[in-house]
Amino acid sequence: MSIKKAAAAALVVALGVTSLAACGTDEVRGAAGKTGEPAPKTVTLVSHDSFNASKEVLAAFTKQTGFTVKVLKSGDAGEAVNKEILTKGSPQGDVFFGVDNTLLSRALDNGIFVPYEAKGLDRIPAAYQLDKEHRVTPIDSGDICVNYDKKYFADKKLAPPVTFDDLAKPAYKDLLVVENPERSSPGLGFLLGTAAKYGDEGWQDYWKKLKANGVKTVDSWELAYNQEFSGSAGGKQAKGDRPLVVSYASSPPVEVLYGEPQPKVAPTGVSTGTCFRQTEFAGLLDGAKNPEGGKALIDFLISKKFQEDMPLQMFVNPVAKDAALPELFTKHGVVIDKPETMAPEKIAEKRDPWIQQWSSLVLK
């Protein structure tokens, strides 16, 4: 998610995939807490609503460490981060998963995490390791991109857009629906993508062009993708009439997996020149009751076993170099070679002013 997103993971919730909590075992191994107290048997993972993992994989963690995972879902990514800020020092759990690069500075500046250098971190490319103090560990990545309805463009004999520039062309007037960046993780990612592409000043001129070209704004990804977008299963049922939507590069494999009947080819495509890279992190919470269990869980989140479980659970990409993608992703997904990116420090400085400027420009 999310974004968080809940970033990419919101797809799971929207398409009706049930979230899974961990199953446990009676055997307990782990460091004891205070002198004379038994070691905690449970490690609590706080996350956004879109966290999902298979029972088998979480059971493997319990067998390996003796700790049972309790998953505490805490709203969308922004809401979940804010709750941890408000409970700083007395957190709801031991580990927080789901803060992404668009919100990372907010979490770090408020000091909700303590440093921990995870075992196996050398398997994760340096490009994902945005915090040199290791207060957070990169877990997954995904690309926020415009998706298109293949049938619409085939019927109209119109080439689908590829780039940000294309979206402002008259040929695509009244076709695009986006999410409000003040309320939506993919909406914020798309705004940051346009700022990365056109610069601190140029992005406003670009949005003026999009507004003149009939862009439609809604509050959430679910409304945009499952109500307004003509290419999704939900959008077809809702008679959505917008063949372009801000979603994820992983959305086409989702449409295949949950299609009834399952199509041989994804009904949606990705405009590969409209993407912004989103990375999600996990961190050990300051004041965690079970810090040893928390460290073991972070180690497990970047293990090959968990990393290879994520794509079909949360529809995100693993960050570990030794983790393979499932066939569904390799066959129906796309690889974004050059997504737009932005330094967390710049996001921290510009995020709120840009959202205010965007609201004045687009919503009025």
Descriptive report:
The chain is of the alpha/beta class and 364 residues long. The chain has 14 helices and 11 strands. Strands 2, 3, 4, 5, 6, 7, 8, 9, 10 and 11 form a 10-stranded mixed β-sheet that branches. α7 packs across α14. The N terminus is likely disordered.
Chart the SSEs and their pairings.
Elements: E1 3-6, H1 10-14, E2 42-47, H2 55-65, E3 68-73, H3 77-86, E4 95-100, H4 104-109, E5 113-114, E6 137-149, H5 150-156, H6 164-167, E7 176-179, H7 185-212, E8 216-218, H8 221-228, H9 233-237, E9 244-248, H10 251-257, E10 268-285, H11 291-301, H12 304-314, E11 317-318, H13 327-332, H14 344-362
Parallel strand pairs: 2-3, 2-4, 7-8, 7-9
Antiparallel strand pairs: 4-10, 5-10, 6-9, 6-10, 6-11
Helix pairs in contact: 7-14
Supply the key terms.
364 residues, alpha/beta, ten-stranded mixed sheet, globular, disordered N terminus
